[in-house]
Amino acid sequence: MELFPFSPEINILPFEGEVNYFPEFFTESQSSDLYGRLKNEINWKQEPIWIFGKKVMQPRLTAMYGNPEIPYGYSGIKMIPDSWTDLLEEIKQPVEKTVGIEFTHVLLNYYRDGSDSMGWHRDNEKELGPNPVIASVSFGESRDFQFRHYKSKTHKTTISLKNGSLLVMSGSTQHHWEHQLPKRKKISGGRINLTFRRILI
After folding, report:
1. N or C: which end of the chain has fewer CB within 10 A?
2. How many separate helices (H) and strands (E) can be counted in the chain?
């Protein structure tokens, strides 16, 4: 498994996709403040999902915010968004300015410790369009984030997403690559991740 030093100018995928990393998008002080506010102010839930025909609880807490008239679904879940809050707008605006896209929704994940995780998947729901741009902001503990080529399964890349970082997935990434956030039992602190996306009607 490859581990590289990343910079915003470098595409971290070797082929068939575009992923750029901004390690210090928010300052340490901003990130610590935003983490605490998100932990306390967001309407967190633990939702069930269907995996191989079996209904299980997700190993993390989630929330959806955005245009309340446009729901979003994945893995058998249909999420009705809460309306944007001032806190989420505060985070969204600099992300939109950097990426150059106006996002309609944000899916939030709260990994309470290293036992919480997310398995291999692609963000390829039809509502996101053919080549979606997904901007992922991380606050709290650094966690490994892994990419694996969808067909070959042999090409893999790991990056540690640090507090206050921004990761942007674009181009054909969701066609050719899947990603996951694996369990890390030695990590006791929490991580909050916001994945901004544009959902098409």
Report:
1. C
2. 3, 15
Question: For residues 84 and 106, what is the distance between their CA atoms, to the nearest angstrom?
Answer: 9
Instruction: For strands 156-161 and 2-3, give the pairing.
Output: parallel
Please name the amino acid found at residue 168: V
Which tens digits make up the pLDDT trace of 7-47?
566 799 999 999 999 999 999 999 999 999 999 999 999 98
Whole-angstrom CA distances from 40 to 17, 87, 110, 133, 156 are: 35, 11, 11, 28, 35
Instruction: Provide the whole-model pTM.
Output: 0.91
| pLDDT at site 56 | 80
Task: Give per-residue pLDDT as tens, 25-35.
Answer: 999 999 999 99
What the chain holds in terms of domains, given with CATH numbers, is 2-197 (2.60.120.590)
